[in-house]
């Protein structure tokens, strides 16, 4: 069935037009990445991954990148002293970040207290980025032995069947 659409063109005519516009997959992928900011995104990833090297040990020890919003670079600081120092070094940070980006990508630096957030830098094992120790394992269960109610519950109860299944799984 060849019904015209709202513009008076048939579906077959629209498909014929579409076929003329088909591009190679490489061309399509290149256009898609360009629309999504592909080069900028690649440079941003490079900035995040190489934060310590790009900013230098002195700046990297004070803060980690949290991302960006529009032209503002967001950096996280562990404490208020580091926040102050990073704020004073904002022009230097902007210069280094924009050099990595290859343009005046950032116009402002916003320094925030981390408050438990983690940065975007990939190397969290360096001395500049100490990780918090893992939480201790919960204590072992010290209650009555599992299965102590077997035979004491009504055999017709669905709760008894659930309990029997639980005991069977716990003993595996």
Give a written overview of the molecule.
There is one protein chain. By secondary structure, this protein is of the alpha+beta class. The protein has a domain at 20-113: GMP Synthetase, Chain A, domain 3 (2-Layer Sandwich), CATH 3.30.300.180. The protein is built from eight helices and three strands. A three-stranded mixed β-sheet has the order 1-2-3. A hairpin with a 2-residue loop joins strand 1 and strand 2 (72-77). Residues 122-130 have low confidence and may be disordered.
Topology:
Elements lengths: L10 H10 L4 H11 L2 H12 L1 H5 L1 H4 L2 E7 L2 E6 L2 H9 L1 H12 L6 E6 L44 H13 L2
Parallel strand pairs: 2-3
Antiparallel strand pairs: 1-2
Short description:
The protein has 172 residues and is α+β, with helices and mostly antiparallel strands.
Main attributes of the structure:
about 170 residues, 3-stranded mixed sheet, 3 strands
Query: H/E series, N to C?
Result: HHHHHEEHHEH
Question: Helical region count?
Answer: 8
CATH topology of the domain at 20-113: GMP Synthetase, Chain A, domain 3
The helical percent reads 40-55%
Looking at CATH, the homologous superfamily of the domain at 20-113 is: DnaA, N-terminal domain
- Principal-axis shape: flat
Structural class determined from secondary elements: alpha+beta
Largest sheet: 3 strands, mixed
